[in-house]
Write a structure and sequence with these properties.
2 copies of one chain form a homodimer. By secondary structure, chain A is α+β, with helices and mostly antiparallel strands. Chain A has 6 helices and 11 strands. In chain A, strand 3 and strand 4 form a beta hairpin.
Chain lengths: 263, 263
């Protein structure tokens, strides 16, 4: 059987919910916005919302749900964030307690859920503009680094900015800046172009998260604010309880990439 | 004595703090971002922050301050929002209790202060682009209307969108959309172009707030989300205590208009 239409976001979420898909979500429901997940008790939610407002590059808010509500009514009506991601991390006091396929048993009525934009959106745009993505070609995870840049603290939350790095051919650097600038709700423009030392990164070959990068001659490293930042900051800040997606296992919304584009 | 340099934002705030300036702030510290003010007890702050996140057109967040902190450390270090606006409104249970020149005696250690972008920013841009502003020429307040469009509710906050209207010569409508689109943190692009009926507005000559508009032949009404919305919504939602600026008497930040521009 051949299909001409891509699978709908609802169908993909159903497949994940049923347990038929347990792997990372890269490439699923192409053109739809995927999101990082953070669920925190209401007691910490104001501070975390404020943290996101003050750090929009690493933490672009796509949707924030009312306490205890598991349905993202604005971006994926009918979905349930407790079951519709392939894999979750559960933290207590900043320590990873479990990685689980759903969080039904961990759910609490005081949990506030945050959906944050994800680099998949701007990677699609880069690819459409002809900018090569070596980590995608090599089927690796993107390389990510802790920096010496501090996020703007908010209440109990503080910590370092995490960046992802993509090497870009010198003649396409301006294009890569322009293309990703259109998606401020998916981390937006790079936070830095060029020398890793400027961000306190000593060795590009040894990332703090993800896989070592492929960098070709004539390519410049470009650094974008990364969706791992809120997890790293939350872990550093040790909130009593927190649920997140497992890296790469994102929540798929109904939004189209263009819905969150700037002009 | 003649001055070639415009007065600094700090100097203007000092003049306001001393009581030497008590009138509206339009035209002061040209090119600097002015802001709407809302201070609410921490108990309602999460809901209001969520309301702003869900309604970025009427409620673009410029800065949110920690509970009890009167200094906007990000946008106006050294300032004090309790004294640096020319006039304040104090509400209890949604009812206006007092209009006062400072709020030192009303301050509480649990108040969270929100600074929201203001249309003065995009009006400067419209004027620079040659789009006439009749209400400014006539030294009137802009005309504002309650609409039949509901804001996205959040917790205890819900209510109608309020819009401001500026008539624009037909041949400049596209230019006006383009120019204001660059300032999403100052209400951004119009929410509607043309027929007032589409927003449930029956009579342009009878605005709900501000002064009746001047509309010339060949002009199209353009409607922008308005900074009065959060006050109208907050009043409708009757939070126990709330401080705002008095309309037109804004807080002047150190930010330049270009600091909050999109690309």
């Amino acid at each position: 059987m051949t299909t001409l239409l891509p699978e709908s976001p609802r169908d993909v979420r159903e497949r994940i919910r049923s347990g038929a898909w347990t792997r990372p979500t890269a490439g699923l429901a192409p053109g739809r916005v995927q999101a990082n997940l953070v669920s925190l008790p209401r007691e910490q939610a104001f501070d975390f919302l404020l943290f996101c407002q003050r750090n929009p590059r690493p933490c672009p808010l796509i949707e924030v749900m009312e306490p205890g509500v598991p349905e993202p009514v604005a971006t994926a009506p009918g979905a349930d964030i407790r079951t519709d991601l392939p894999s979750y991390n559960v933290y207590r006091e900043g320590v990873l307690e479990a990685t689980v396929p759903d969080v039904i048993d961990y759910w609490r009525d005081d949990l506030v859920t945050f959906l944050l934009g994800c680099s998949f959106t701007f990677e699609t745009a880069l690819a459409s503009a002809g900018v090569p993505l070596h980590h995608v070609e090599a089927e690796r995870n993107v390389a990510m680094y802790k920096t010496n840049v501090q996020t703007a603290p908010a209440g109990v939350f503080a910590g370092p900015l995490v960046v992802s790095m993509r090497p870009v051919p010198r003649e396409q650097v301006v294009k890569a800046v322009q293309v990703t600038s259109r998606f401020p709700n998916a981390h937006g423009a790079p936070v830095h172009v060029g020398e890793p030392e400027a961000l306190g990164i000593r060795d590009l070959a040894s990332p703090d998260y993800g896989d070592p990068p492929v960098i070709l001659d004539g390519e410049t490293p470009l650094f974008w604010a990364c969706g791992v930042t809120p997890q790293a900051v939350a872990v550093a800040s040790k909130p009593p309880f927190m649920i997140t997606h497992a890296p790469g296992h994102m929540f798929i919304t109904d939004l189209r990439d263009e819905d969150i584009a700037a002009l």
